[in-house]
Amino acid sequence: MTPDSTPDTPAVACTGLCYSFGDTRAVDGLDLSVGEGEVFGLLGPNGAGKTTAIRCITTLLPVPAGMVRVFGHDTGKDRMAVRRLLGYVPQQLSADSGLTGRENVELFARVFDVPRRERAARVAEALEVVDLADAADRLAGTYSGGMVRRLELAQALVSAPRLLILDEPTIGLDPIARTGVWDQINAVRAATGMTVLVTTHYMDEADQHCDRVGLMHRGRIRALGTPTELRRGLAERQGADALPTLEDVFRDVAGSGLDDQSGGFRDVRSTRRTANRVG
Ligand SMILES: Nc1ncnc2c1ncn2[C@@H]1O[C@H](COP(=O)(O)OP(=O)(O)OP(=O)(O)O)[C@@H](O)[C@H]1O
After folding, report:
1. Is the CB of 23 under 6 A from ligand 1?
2. Which atom of ligand 1 sits closest to the CA of residue 52?
């Protein structure tokens, strides 16, 4: 616990967060609270503002309007304290193909100030957790897309963060590799009680793995709850017998906006970005 936090202090609290790129209002008054120990899914189409919000939470972007706190620390005033508490797996490639898996994780251990004496053991442990111990001394450039994603997870985990933030961790992976990545995330969470904030386009994954989800559209959360609450809520509003899917819920919330310039759930843009990333 930090000096500013109590057992009820949320892992992440955004209040009225706004961020613009020129005339584009990427995040538009975002209110969000993620409880400690939750797996929270931030969902939405391309351009909804998910990555921008995540970058504000991770302190990579400033917070020009509103407030963001991580375990009670103001990201504007206490940037280093926030950074020490979190592990971040960005959409862009963060592993170096010219280094071995172990060397990649060692690099992160040094950057995140893992004490020198503990470093080798912590690196080995992180690689073991993501099931890469046997491949640890191979060049990352020889890894499959799923292995690269798991290596990036090990990089984020080596500093033993209290909050793990993953931006589209499974996009572009085949279904077996997607399951593998989620297995590792769930295993770590079960072992450590760590809070997980994840963005994804895959509604089925959010439904299966997230305790709560926030459906984001045009810079704001438009619906919030457990996947089952949101699906039951729509069934009641529609008087439907069968339970709708989360994707149905999102279409109901976002309406025709999904078909405009913001893109659709499976917009090719992100897939292409990831194909480049792991290629
Ligand atoms: N560096 C930038 N410069 C200008 N506009 C940007 C920049 N980054 C994002 N935007 C714009 O801000 C809006 C929100 O983008 P953001 O990447 O946060 O959305 P997203 O929900 O993460 O989408 P995706 O799923 O494609 O990653 C979009 O309209 C996008 O075009």
Report:
1. no
2. 18
The domains found in the chain, sorted by start residue, are 12-278 (3.40.50.300)
Distance CA 34, CA 9 (A): 9
Per-residue pLDDT of the chain (279 residues; tens, 9 = 90+): 444 556 679 999 999 999 999 999 999 999 999 999 999 999 988 889 999 999 999 999 999 999 999 999 999 999 889 988 998 888 888 889 999 999 999 999 988 878 899 999 999 999 998 889 999 999 999 999 889 989 999 999 998 899 999 998 888 788 888 888 898 889 888 888 899 999 988 888 999 999 999 999 999 999 999 999 999 999 988 888 888 999 899 888 877 554 444 433 333 334 434 434 433
d(CA 17, CA 31): 7
CA quadruple 82, 84, 89, 91: dihedral sign: positive
Is the CB of residue 214 below 6 angstroms from any atom belonging to ligand 1?
no
Distance 230 CA to ligand 1 centre (A): 26
With contact defined as beta carbons under 8 Å apart, do 274 and 266 qualify? Answer: no
Residue nearest to ligand 1 atom 4, measured at CA: 21
Give the span between the Cα atoms of 67 and 96, in whole angstroms: 34
ipTM of the complex, rounded to two decimals:
0.96
